[in-house]
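Q: What residues go here?
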């Protein structure tokens, strides 16, 4: 189990002048730095290595409450201030999956080190690793608080990029010109709404975490970076809400089109019924089997009745036209 934990873990030590990516053969080699000039990033894929987590916590003399926190399989959003460090957990949407599954992501942060624990392998952080290795930007001049900011920003950026990409596809498929009152079109709208609800839920989750982070006070840990993340999440939530309103309007338009079509059909049937009712009435009268109906023996009675029927039909149609009923 220890070997598996080590294979799923990576350690990066960096400062303004140095960068080192370490490989370890034993958990005993995982010692969090206390050097103010060096920052350490330990990243682990998998949240089931409970015994290995205990070893890391004990040998680094971290707060014992971390053992209890890491033993919980499911975490709601938490930002907990412990002895000299910060425990942060949130659920993150996996945008590479077509089903938009989520994973647990945990951060244990102090001013000099950051331990990120991810439920599933794979992340959006390669660009941060490249910046650290290539000494690009200011990341190596900053401490773990700025690294946490970049990790959270990377998650939000991924949400925004995925949202924009899907929004463009949705715009083509669900444009106003393509609105059709069919089950297929309605299904596409509902599918898109479900995607947006997942995005909104995940973004609100991150926003709540960031709001809690802003209130944390740890010596050497600067929270000024996180106000920008809150603005980014607010903008994304606003865009999602706007598209949800558009989709709701399209659903209402579909129902309106269906109602209009139904009204047109009912109007046509009603007009035809009104035209044929008097004709049926006349046919019914002269279809009765009474001998003393004078018109039955009249030489031109049949033709006169047909003429009356034609006149009744023309009169009804003229009246409907005048009323602009069709």
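A:
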């Amino acid at each position: 189990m220890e070997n598996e934990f080590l294979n799923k873990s990576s350690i990066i030590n960096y400062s303004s002048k140095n960068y080192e990516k370490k490989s370890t053969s034993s958990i005993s080699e995982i010692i969090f730095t206390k050097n103010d000039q060096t920052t350490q990033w330990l990243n682990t894929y998998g949240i089931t290595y409970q015994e290995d987590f205990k070893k890391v916590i004990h040998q680094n003399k971290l707060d014992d409450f971390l053992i209890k926190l890491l033993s919980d399989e499911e975490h709601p959003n938490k930002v907990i201030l412990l002895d000299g460090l910060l425990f942060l957990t949130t659920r993150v949407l996996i945008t590479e999956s077509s089903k938009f599954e989520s994973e647990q992501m945990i951060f244990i942060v102090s001013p000099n080190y950051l331990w990120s624990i991810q439920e599933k392998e794979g992340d959006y952080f390669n660009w941060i690793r490249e910046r650290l290795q290539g000494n690009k930007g200011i990341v190596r001049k900053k401490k773990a608080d700025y690294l946490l900011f970049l990790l959270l920003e990377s998650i939000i950026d991924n949400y925004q990029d995925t949202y924009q990409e899907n929004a463009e596809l949705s715009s083509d498929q669900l444009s106003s010109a393509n609105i059709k009152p069919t089950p297929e079109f309605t299904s596409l709208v509902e599918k898109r709404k479900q995607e947006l609800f997942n995005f909104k839920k995940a973004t609100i989750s991150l926003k709540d975490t960031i709001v809690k982070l802003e209130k944390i006070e740890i010596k050497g840990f600067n929270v000024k970076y996180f106000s920008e993340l809150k603005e980014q999440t607010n903008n994304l939530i606003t865009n999602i809400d706007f598209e949800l309103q558009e989709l709701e309007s399209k659903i209402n338009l579909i129902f309106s089109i269906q109602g209009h079509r139904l009204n047109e059909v009912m109007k046509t049937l009603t007009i035809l019924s009104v035209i044929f009712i008097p004709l049926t009435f006349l046919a019914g009268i002269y279809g009765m089997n009474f001998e003393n109906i004078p018109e039955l023996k009249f030489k031109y009675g049949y033709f006169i009745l047909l003429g009356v029927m034609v006149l009744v039909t023309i009169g009804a149609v003229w009246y409907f036209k005048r009323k602009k009923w069709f």
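A: Context that may help when evaluating the design: The first helix runs from residue 2 to 7. The first strand starts at residue 9 and ends at 14.
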